[in-house]
Amino acid sequence: MNTEALIDTREPPALDLTGVHVLIVEDDEDSRELMTTVLEDCNATVAIAGSGEEALLRVGEHTFDVIVSDLGLPDFDGCALIKQIRALPRGREVPAIALTGRAGLEEARRALMAGFQVHLAKPTDAWLLANAIANVVGMPILDASLDASLDASRDPGPSLD
């Protein structure tokens, strides 16, 4: 099983995401399954898209509370995808979390400038992802120590240009 996208290092979060509709955009099947399991264990409703094209179709047809997207999709750059999602009536205001294997200031800046609210580097702890989702949809997070991690994922700091 590929655990590059998510590492489940804790007991399942006792976080209740009942009523939260999540779209996972991830081309790796094992990563999609693991994220789906973690989020469904938190009572979230999860839809999956294995490509950028599929994500655009799903967002055009359904309303989601949050989108979790890999930036390295085979058919779309994740930043280009979020810009297209933002152009759709159902995608304008949906909070989005970027997942990427390329950690670093410039990658975070690129994701945030494209329209993501949070940037998380892979591998991402399941607990952090679940709490990031709760945070972007306005629910309280369970672990106050994660506040700094979530804040840092939103503000990449000054440009190094």
User: Can you count the helices?
Assistant: 6
Fourth-tier CATH superfamily name: Response regulator
Please bin the fraction of helical residues. 25-40%
CATH level 1 name: Alpha Beta
Could you tell me the strand content as a percent range?
15-25%
Number of strands: 7
Domain unit count: 1
Structure description:
With 161 residues, the protein is of the alpha/beta class. The chain has helices at 29-41, 52-61, 78-86, 105-114, 126-136, 146-154, and strands at residues 6-7, 21-25, 45-49, 66-70, 96-100, 118-121, 124-125. The protein has one domain (15-150): 3-Layer(aba) Sandwich (Rossmann fold). A five-stranded parallel sheet has the order 3-2-4-5-6, sandwiched between helices. A two-stranded parallel ribbon has the order 1-7. The chain is globular and about 35 Å long.
What labels would you give this structure?
Rossmann fold, 5-stranded parallel beta sheet, alpha/beta, 161 residues, two-stranded parallel sheet
Per-chain topology:
Layout: E1 6-7, E2 21-25, H1 29-41, E3 45-49, H2 52-61, E4 66-70, H3 78-86, E5 96-100, H4 105-114, E6 118-121, E7 124-125, H5 126-136, H6 146-154
Helix pairs in contact: 2-3
Task: Briefly characterize the structure.
With 161 residues, the chain is α/β, with parallel strands linked by helices.
